[in-house]
Amino acid sequence: MTDDAADEDVMTPEQLAGDVAAATTALAAAISELPPPEPALDALPDLLPLALGSPRKVVTGTSSSTAAPYADAREHLAAVLDVVAARATLSIAEAWHTGRISAPGGD
């Protein structure tokens, strides 16, 4: 293989630019000939899926409360954890009282 044969396979920048321009023109013509897309159908039906139950009703704040709002998220989280602790304590006490849980016998 000689240098002349290798040079025949290499395109000059002008040839490459001409090929890119021709390809761009052909692509633009092909795109303009495509039919317009069909209108999209609504992805969601009008009826709501109820597998997880009916949607919750939005409650508006019409009642008057004398409680002050939480100062920050930490205060709210502390109150929620207090409720969780109280419910867990109540569940354990009820289970102990009914005999579902008991201490192992000392005998």
Count of separate DSSP helical elements: 3
Compute the CA-based radius of gyration.
38 Å
The gross shape turns out to be elongated
Low-confidence stretches: none
Strand residues, percent: under 5%
Salient structural properties:
50% helix, 107 residues, single chain
Reconstruct the topology from this structure.
Elements: H1 3-9, H2 13-32, H3 73-98
Could you please describe the fold and organization of this structure?
With 107 residues, this protein is mainly α. It has a domain at 73-100. Helix content is 50%, strand content 0%. It contains 3 helices and no strands. The protein has helices at 3-9, 13-32, 73-98. The longest helix is centred in the last third of the chain and has 26 residues, at 73-98. It starts with a helix and ends in a 9-residue tail after the last helix. The model has no long low-confidence stretch (mean pLDDT 81).
Q: Short description, anyone?
A:
The chain is mainly alpha-helical. The protein has helices at residues 3-9, 13-32, 73-98. The longest helix has 26 residues, at 73-98.
